[in-house]
């Protein structure tokens, strides 16, 4: 007798336990390691460039890391049934490396750690960061299925500069270009991240903004949004962009086709999303090379 989708999900839950090393590897895979590592590294580097001391930079790194881990693990846990139905054997919950309750506990533990780490940077800074993390959880828990699917990304990434700046002496609000640039990067990341899954999402009833637009328009919109982010982060800070700023814009121009053109023979290619991470790292590197931070000083705005 053929199993229903629900029975298949239940069968995956009853898989035998695996060895601990396999579970650890599964947790690493389930946390969406590339964006988790890139976001944590970039925000920590921005904190150091803005004048936060080593101890506070470690707090920033810990808060961002645990926040990103909680969001990634929550995402895979919430999407478990849909991933099973779509045959996503690249997911550790689907291939049996992890059990759902393990991932649920990991997400809850990471979120619980994120709260005190965020607040230790400063009350207002912690509130800004936790608001962004909360927006990401709201995306996982339902907003991803609505036309406002882009909003949690804009809020979450736009508030990362605020997290750093509000942890500085005097608790200054970050310059507008930093908030806008972060928000644009977040929206672009959302668009390119969803691209490979649009057809499967529509079949599962997920109708966020990219799914409603379709693959072609989403690629064009992603390129426009990411291009705007690169321009804002290059020309927004005070003073001329300099060689680093123009180099970042040049690299962005070279990366743009990777976010627009589909990869032949690879409908589920992650190249557009990985290109987005490279673009974000390039923009951040240009800022750091120019000595631009978020604190008081000639390069801070």
Automatic annotation (TrEMBL):
Keyword flag Transmembrane helix: yes
Major localization class: membrane
Bilayer topology annotation: Multi-pass membrane protein
Listed transmembrane segments: 109-130, 150-168, 220-237, 243-261, 273-293
Family matches, as InterPro entries: UbiA_prenyltransferase, UbiA_sf
Pfam families, per the entry: UbiA
Gene Ontology molecular function terms on file: transferase activity, transferring alkyl or aryl (other than methyl) groups
Any Gene Ontology CC annotation: membrane
Key words, A-Z: Membrane, Transmembrane, Transmembrane helix
Organism: Kitasatospora indigofera
Name under which the protein is recorded: Membrane protein
Protein location: Membrane
Keyword Iron attributed: no
